Amino acid sequence: MIGSYFFGLASNYLNQLLSVLVNLLLIPYLLTCMGTRMTGVYLVLMTVANFAAVGVGWVASAGVTRMAMLNVTRDRELIGRIHRLVVLAFGVYGAAVLAVTALASLLVGRWWLTDASVESIEQIRRACLLLGVYVWISYVHNADLALLTALLRQGEANLYRAGAQALFGVAAVGFLAHGARIDVLLAAQVLTTLAVATAVRISLRVRSIISRWEWTWPDKTVVAQVLVATGGSYFLFGLAQFALMYADVFVVGAVLGSEAVTTYIVVWKIAEFAGLVISRISETLSPYLTRMGAHGSVSELRALFLTTSRLQHGLAIAVGCGYALIGPWLVGLWVGVENRPTQWWLYALCGGGIVFQVVNRHDVILHFALDRIGRLVVPHIVEVSLKLGLTVVFFPALGFGAPLAAFAVVQVFGMTWWYRRAALQLVRIGWREWWQKVAGPVSVEFGLIIACVLAVAPWATTWSWGMSVVSGCVLTMALGLVAHRQRRQGVGGLFASVTCLLSKY
């Protein structure tokens, strides 16, 4: 299975790319043809779908962890029972969401959007119903993709996701060509998701990965293991993580108003997206870590963690430095130079935020994979509380930059070291070994680059696009020298080392 991990990672990035492209093309079209109000209604409906996933997304993670721990051949029947439980849980929750959206459709024009035209009200009512159907289909479909992930077939699962994105893009163009309506757009999503979900289910059945569906009451032992022992901590951690990601936006809005929210999102959104992209390396690794923890040796798990940890530290620092230098240009390119924040330290804080986001996520993924996420629930709640508290304290001096500064302070003076300590304990590594194999080499390789970036960052907001491109080229050359140094010392093949460690799983 050499290369399966990288196939999964590449297909993950393909799915992200298609999703971004579809939204980049779709939203301007909707704004032009339907106006800001109906486009806003569509975005709200899709946000509701994403928000509803907070209540059930943990079921897939718990199911993947439990299935990945088992032997594919010897424990096939148990894997099937866990998969059926996940399907049932998603189906029941999806039905509840469908009931809520059906109720919401009846209230359109009465309790909300009361000033909308009769035609718009009918359109939005149908869109609400279709949203519920889309949620139900996509949730049940997600259970099948979770099974593929647990079987280390993430590449296949991600290709199905990418196929759904591409098919939706084509269907949206065809449907909207006959009239720009949000109910038509939701109908396109329902049909494309149903088509891909049906294809996945048929493929799983034909290859005997799943057996013919037979109704039985869920096994109480399996329910206790997946939904209670594993799922409970996953659910609590997911809520805390959701609060960590989005609470600062609500606090900024409550204290400084909607304009400050817009400015804050503008300066942080690109950095956050960059951090999420790099974090996919760790997230794609999760089922492999689970399998290795259940069937491999501690030494193999330790070697894989250290190798990927060093890789993630290097990538995060490189991207963080890049954003500190060319972030002002990227934001200006996105929203216009006149709309971008001019404080250079905001971009430096965002660059540091990328680093903490990525390296902490790597440690968290290890806990997810080894079913130890319960250890992080209380620390994560503490992190959220400290960040929000410091954000309020920093508001008078820093304004909308307060959440970024609060996040940096909380990480530097406590939380990132706590996450690191907890991860090192899981793989039985001491601080000395971590410093020798991860922190020390990264400090030597990137210390001078970080110092130079911080020295010139105060002038980055005044550069023209040409200077930004030049600085990006200089930074790329510096990183190239780092890579050349690694190859000369025989430590540059980090991806090759990962492939070697994963080859037997």
Question: Could you characterize the architecture of this molecule?
Answer:
The protein is mostly helical and 505 residues long. The protein folds into two domains: 4-218, no CATH class; 236-502, no CATH class. 83% of the residues lie in helices and 0% in strands. It is globular. The N and C termini lie close together (7 Å).
Task: Name the features.
15 helices; mainly alpha; 2 domains; 83% helix; 505 residues
Provide a brief overview of the structure.
This protein is an all-alpha fold and 505 residues long.
Any chance you could write out the topology, listing elements then pairs?
Elements: H1 4-52, H2 57-68, H3 76-107, H4 118-150, H5 154-176, H6 182-206, H7 220-256, H8 258-295, H9 298-335, H10 344-369, H11 377-398, H12 402-426, H13 431-456, H14 465-488, H15 494-502
